[in-house]
Amino acid sequence: MSLVVDAHHHFWDPARHHYYWMTDNVAAIRRHFGPEDLRPLLAPSGVDWTLVVQTISSMDETREFLRIADETEFVAGVIGWVDLTHSSVAKALSELRSETGGHYLVGIRHQVHDEHDEEWLLDKHVQRGIQAVGEAGLVYDLLVRTRELPAALEVARALPQVRFVIDHMAKPRIANGPADHEWELAMAPFSDLPNVMCKLSGMVTEAIPTEWTPEDLVPYVRRTLGWFGAERCIFGSDWPVCLLAGTYGQVVEALRYVVSDLKPADQEAIFGGNAVRVYGLPV
């Protein structure tokens, strides 16, 4: 297989930042995770490059990630955070790009599914901010669940010039069985939007608390591939969140199993080529 990119993982340090989502439910991963923890996991799984993704609403965290990318050989890009509601999103992005490692900034994300308003994305200030992200040549990652998908669809239609990536397939309820009909109805319309891609990530944690196998992921990945095609799907591990359900290697191998019936070129696109193209990684 050619270049493999893990397009979605995190670093964090509870001693430096407060993570509001880091409750007792995730106590097993409530500790420092940095490049030194991920580095030994990559080669055994055949992963060459990674993208580190924001975890809190903090430009300071984004600056830290940019410095880490500048110092870490395997981090190829950063998906950071800016306040999309602010009137000067373009200025904030310019400031981040002027920081050490600023050229590693490839995208922006906000934890939309934690907003009280399910139509938060439709706020005119938010849409203006997302438009500024696109005008800066960056990707906007959509962290949403089924509840927020209608608003995400409306925004993606309104801003066809912006490249969007749906994180974690919008978190279908895999633990409930082989089908999530509400999720399917909300996801299917994205098939008509060429500016929207989808990450095949975050699935194993949506499969717990039950014991999961790669077969449990098959119907969800196949539906997603049916909507987006292999050319619009991107691999991500969601490490270290994935450790709540399995090892890094198990997550990588599970997706390899699920897409093993695809053409080799399609598998290579999912595991690396699409991330390079969509996020503009330097190869």
Structure description:
By secondary structure, the chain is of the alpha/beta class. It has one domain (5-279): TIM Barrel. Helix content is 38%, strand content 13%. It has 10 helices and 8 strands. Strands 1-2-3-4-5-6-7-8 form an 8-stranded parallel β-sheet. Helix 3 links the parallel strand 3 (75-80) and strand 4. Helix 8 crosses helix 9 (248-258).
Please give the structural blueprint:
Elements: E1 5-9, H1 35-42, E2 49-53, H2 59-71, E3 75-80, H3 89-98, E4 105-110, H4 124-135, E5 139-142, H5 149-158, E6 164-166, H6 181-187, E7 196-200, H7 203-207, H8 214-228, E8 233-235, H9 248-258, H10 264-279
Parallel strand pairs: 1-2, 2-3, 3-4, 4-5, 5-6, 6-7, 7-8
Helix pairs in contact: 8-9
What CATH calls the topology is TIM Barrel
Helix and strand succession? EHEHEHEHEHEHEHHEHH
Class by alpha and beta content: alpha/beta
Low-confidence stretches: none
Distance between the termini: 16 Å
The average pLDDT value, as a whole number, equals: 97
Total helical elements: 10
Q: How large is the radius of gyration? A: 17 Å
Total strand count, please?
A: 8
Describe the global form: globular
**CATH top level label:** Alpha Beta
CATH 2nd-level architecture: Alpha-Beta Barrel
**Helix content, binned percent:** 25-40%
